[in-house]
Design brief:
1 helix; binds zinc ion; 11 strands; eight-stranded mixed beta sheet; globular; Metal Binding Protein, Guanine Nucleotide Exchange Factor, Chain A
């Protein structure tokens, strides 16, 4: 199985993990929109223990969004890197930081009930008004 590489804007933080996302989707919740600064956040979920920080461990910063979600970002350039679902042991990797191409593509939208009013989600994908949690 090939390894995917990912990095932040300044190149300080590098991550590596197998091309084995459990799911890939687009989250339209207002918190993801705030954190990423984008209309929505595309993420791929993978078991936390499969992700290796290959460079820049000292740049990693964390924001405790809730008891079960910790958001990781680069303390130097501010790039949003992943959200850690602590109770499930999952990292939701922000797909925008990928430097290589995964074998699959996002296939659903979640939290479309709180999507940006100016944004029209790709209607080819399944839509859920709320999230899985
Ligand atoms: Zn950075
Ligand atoms: Zn979200």
């Amino acid at each position: 199985m090939s390894e995917l590489q990912a990095s932040c804007l300044c190149g300080g933080v590098h991550l590596s993990f197998p091309d084995a996302f459990l799911y890939m989707g687009n989250c339209h919740c207002s918190e993801c929109r705030k954190f990423t600064g984008a209309d929505y956040s595309s993420v791929g979920g993978i078991e936390a223990e499969k992700v290796t920080v290959t460079a820049g461990q000292d740049h990693l910063r964390y924001y405790d969004k809730s008891a079960e979600t910790v958001l990781a970002f680069c303390g130097h350039c501010g790039s949003s890197l992943f959200s850690h679902k602590v109770n499930r042991g999952i990292f939701n990797i922000r797909l925008g930081i990928l430097d290589s191409t995964p074998q699959h593509t996002p296939d659903f939208h979640i939290h479309t009930a709180s999507k940006a009013p100016w944004h029209t989600p790709n209607e080819a994908l399944k839509q859920f008004e709320h999230g899985p949690d």
